[in-house]
Amino acid sequence: MIEILNAAEVAKARVTGRLVADILQAMKKRATVGTNLLEIDQWTGQMIKEAGAESCYIDYAPSFGRGPFGHYICTGVNDAVLHGLPHDYELQDGDLLSLDLAVSKDGIAADSAISFIVGDSRPAESVKLIEATERALAAGIAAARPGAKIGDLSYAIGTVLSEAGYPVNTEFGGHGIGSTMHQDPHIPNTGRPGRGYVLQPGLMLALEPWVMADTDQLTFDADGWTLRSKTGARSAHSEHTVIITDDGAEILTLPTAS
C-alpha cells in the first residue's frame, strides 16, 4: 500500500514527527554510563503515553520476528544495528548506541533513528560510522523531490556509504509510512538511479541508512529480534521521516528545539 497524505494529514504528521524527535533527544540525554536499556524503554513509554500517542512497536509482529516486539523503542548497542530488543544491560563508556523509535498520534505515524556514543570516549571507528550514516541520510533527503524515483534516493544513499568504505545490506532499508508504520515503497540503501516508483507531493517516506564496519551480513540474537553484524563489528543507523513537497522534501522528525 502506498498512501498520499492530504494537507490535514500532513499537519498531523508534523506533530507526530516532532514528538518522535523530542523523545529520541530526551533519551539521548538520559543515556549515560550506567543507564539500563530497560530504563530507556520505560522512559520512552511514559513520554509516549503522556503525549496521548501510541507505540508502533508494542504489538509489532512481522514475519521475521518472534512474536510481538513488546517494547517501546529499539536499543542497539555496538554490533546490534536493527530491532534491538531492550534488555537488562547497563551502558558503558564508549558504547555506540542506536535508538530507533516509531510512534503514531491521531492516526499518523513517524519513524526516526539516531546513533551516538555513550560517555566521554570517542572511538574513531564509531565516529566514522555515525558520520557516514548521517551524510548518507542527508544525501537521500536532498535527492527526494517530485518526479524523482526511488532508485535516485537509493543511489544517493549508497554512494555515500560505499565511498566511506562500507559494504551495504539491502535486506532492510527505508520505507513508506503514513497511517501505518511500514508501507510501500521499499527504499534499499543502494541502487540504480532512474528506477522505481515516482515520488509525488504528499508521499511520506522513512529514509534509514545503516551500516556495519566490515560486513553486509546480519545474524539474529536468540531473542528473535535483535539483528547484529555477523562479524561482531560495530554498526550505526540514522533515520528521518520526510514528506515530499511541491519542490523537495520536508524533514518531519526534527526536535522542537531545532
Automatic annotation (TrEMBL):
InterPro entries registered for this protein in UniProt: Creatinase/aminopeptidase-like, Pept_M24, Pept_M24_MAP, Pept_M24A_MAP1
UniProt binding sites for a divalent metal cation 1: 100, 111, 239
Entry note: cofactor: Binds 2 divalent metal cations per subunit. Has a high-affinity and a low affinity metal-binding site. The true nature of the physiological cofactor is under debate. The enzyme is active with cobalt, zinc, manganese or divalent iron ions. Most likely, methionine aminopeptidases function as mononuclear Fe(2+)-metalloproteases under physiological conditions, and the catalytically relevant metal-binding site has been assigned to the histidine-containing high-affinity site.
Limits of the Peptidase M24 domain: 13-246
Enzyme Commission number(s) from the entry: 3.4.11.18
Pfam families: Peptidase_M24 (PF00557)
Entry keyword set: Aminopeptidase, Hydrolase, Metal-binding, Protease
Binding-site positions, substrate: 83, 182
Binding site residues for a divalent metal cation 2: 111, 175, 208, 239
Reported cofactor(s): Co(2+); Zn(2+); Mn(2+); Fe(2+)
Gene Ontology MF terms in the entry: aminopeptidase activity
Catalyzed reactions per annotation: Release of N-terminal amino acids, preferentially methionine, from peptides and arylamides
Source taxon at top rank: Bacteria
Record-stated family: Belongs to the peptidase M24A family. Methionine aminopeptidase type 1 subfamily.
Assembly mode: Monomer.
Family matches, as PANTHER family: METHIONINE AMINOPEPTIDASE
HAMAP family assigned to the protein according to its UniProt record, in alphabetical order: MetAP_1
Protein task: Removes the N-terminal methionine from nascent proteins. The N-terminal methionine is often cleaved when the second residue in the primary sequence is small and uncharged (Met-Ala-, Cys, Gly, Pro, Ser, Thr, or Val). Requires deformylation of the N(alpha)-formylated initiator methionine before it can be hydrolyzed.
Identification of the protein by name: Methionine aminopeptidase
Organism (species): Arthrobacter gandavensis
Organism taxonomic ancestry: Bacteria, Bacillati, Actinomycetota, Actinomycetes, Micrococcales
